[in-house]
Specification:
Radius of gyration: 17 Å
Distance between the termini: 26 Å
CATH class: Alpha Beta
CATH topology: 60s Ribosomal Protein L30, Chain: A
Helix content: 40-55%
Strand content: 15-25%
Number of strands: 5
Oligomer: single chain
Shape: globular
Amino acid sequence: MKNIIIAVLAIAIIISGCKTMNKQQKGTVAGAAGGALIGAAVSHGSIWGILIGAAVGGAAGNLIGKKMDQQAKELKQAVPTAEVQRVGEGINMTFESGLLFKLNSFDLNSTYEDDLASAAGVFIKYPDTNILIEGHTDDTGKDEYNQTLSEKRAHAVAAFLISKGVDAKRLTEKGYGESQPKYANDSDSSRAKNRRVELAVYANEQMKTDAKEGKLE
């Protein structure tokens, strides 16, 4: 199991740094590494690789998973417009950029701030988790522009969560531009889905320790 986790993380790192790699090439890398689990992590981008790699496993992992189940449920209720998935022992939360931001801008839509504030309230309720915030774009425009825009959008979400009371030490920001599409950039609807901000919510070291010692409530 450890070897699989290491492989997943290695692939996620390689792919996140390779802007020119398309989905077919990603699949080739996954196939070379071996395993359906690795292939799934790669095809879903770095978020899945990180969440799978952060898994503790065993009884401790089961306790963490149960707590994440509750947090995921509350996030779905707080932000019904976002996609919330349980992955491994963590949570993958995806926001549509069209709802979060104005076109070609990293300024948050004021109409969506209430939803983000609701998400922040859930994150504050569960302080023993860390949150990775990733910005993504479609393939229109220049690579450099998309990369910068994705970074600024990830930062805008992080700054808003901090302004609502989420501890900045829990947050990590990353931008991937157009390098990690979830859908083929062959139609307006698919491109809209690729313009997104994704969050990975996973256990911090204190939660992992509490789970291993059977103290996680």
